[in-house]
Amino acid sequence: MERQAQPIQVAIVEDRDETREGLATLIDTSPGFSTVGRFASMEDALSKLQHNAPDVLLTDIGLPGISGIEGVRRFLERFPKLQILMLTVYGDDEHVFEAICAGASGYLLKDTPPERLIASLGELVGGGAPMSPEIARKVVTMFTRFVPRGDAKSALTPREHELLVLLANGHSYKTAAKELGLAIDTVRFHIRSIYEKLHVHSKSEAVAIALRRGILR
């Protein structure tokens, strides 16, 4: 994808020193990217990023003190247009949906290959919403089991569903676009549309209730 003139600025929130420094090294050695902050806690990040937002906030969920999900909410109150990418070991329904409904723009598991992680940072800034294949499968499940049938405003279009299935099967934006005969910008548009529907129709409280009642499996 085309890079913007200035490097994409990324701030990292990760409590494990080795992981945090490894991510910073990966980002700083990737052309077109740079780190502008490395934080071991969400409290530290919120304190030091009060006035200037990075292009992307890359954060874990399981943090000491303020969780990554609560941090998403607080950062978006301060910087509504901030792009936030969750990078975590948590792949269960509750964490996935609460993070997305809190406003996370993308969700990757920590076993994501380095090159895919870097590509995802670029996709975020380009208007995409990257997901690990496992997460895409959960989103498909959410729409088939949780969104009310016949709700035209919240239902996935055939193209959105087709795209999600491809992502769930491991396709990247680029290969999904080729498979569907679409421009990559069109793929980004469809993924954003899917996320908007999640935000509107699946507030975290409703998702939590649904999970407790066993609606989502």
Account of the 3D structure:
- The chain is built from ten helices and five strands; from the N terminus they run βαβαβαβαβαααααα.
- With 217 residues, it is of the alpha/beta class.
- The chain has a single domain (8-212), classed as 3-Layer(aba) Sandwich (Rossmann fold), CATH 3.40.50.
- It has a five-stranded parallel beta sheet with strand order 2-1-3-4-5, sandwiched between helices.
- Helix 4 runs antiparallel to helix 10 (204-212) and helix 7 (158-168) packs across helix 9.
- The chain starts with 7 loop residues before the first strand and ends in a 5-residue tail after the last helix.
- 36% of the residues are buried.
Question: Strand content of the residues, in percent?
Answer: 5-15%
Low-confidence stretches: 200-217
Question: What gyration radius follows from the Cα positions, in whole Å?
Answer: 17 Å
Under CATH, the homologous superfamily reads Response regulator
Output the keywords:
single chain; Rossmann fold; five-stranded parallel sheet; about 50% helix
Quick description:
This protein is of the alpha/beta class and 217 residues long.
Give the helix/strand layout.
Layout: E1 8-13, H1 17-28, E2 33-39, H2 42-48, E3 56-59, H3 68-78, E4 83-88, H4 93-102, E5 106-109, H5 114-125, H6 133-145, H7 158-168, H8 173-180, H9 184-201, H10 204-212
Parallel strand pairs: 1-2, 1-3, 3-4, 4-5
